[in-house]
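2024-03-11 09:14:02 INFO queue: dequeued item Putative amino acid transporter, len=99
2024-03-11 09:14:02 INFO validating residues
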Amino acid sequence: QDNCRFASITIALISVIFLGANFIPSIWDAFQFTGATAAVCLGFIFPAAITLRDRHYIATSKDKMLCVFMIVLAVFANAVAIYSDAYALIKRNSSPIVG
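2024-03-11 09:14:37 INFO prediction written
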């Protein structure tokens, strides 16, 4: 059962990498999406999630509400950044129809 799971995960990862290598026009486009996501995760989502976990009950309810607000705001900002990158990519690659 472990070999089957290992093989299926490997096939899925190689398939995603193959599709990405064929359909992403430039490495810089991949860096834009990765950078937009990683910066928001490292700056806002991960610290807030760690505070929400709070095993030692140090955080107050105000702290936890602020963490939830930070996560919601970070997800919204990340969605806007990804939409902006995707829109710029689509607009750059679309050519006007000449007829």
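2024-03-11 09:14:37 INFO annotate: Helices lie at 2-23, 27-53, 61-93.
2024-03-11 09:14:38 INFO item closed
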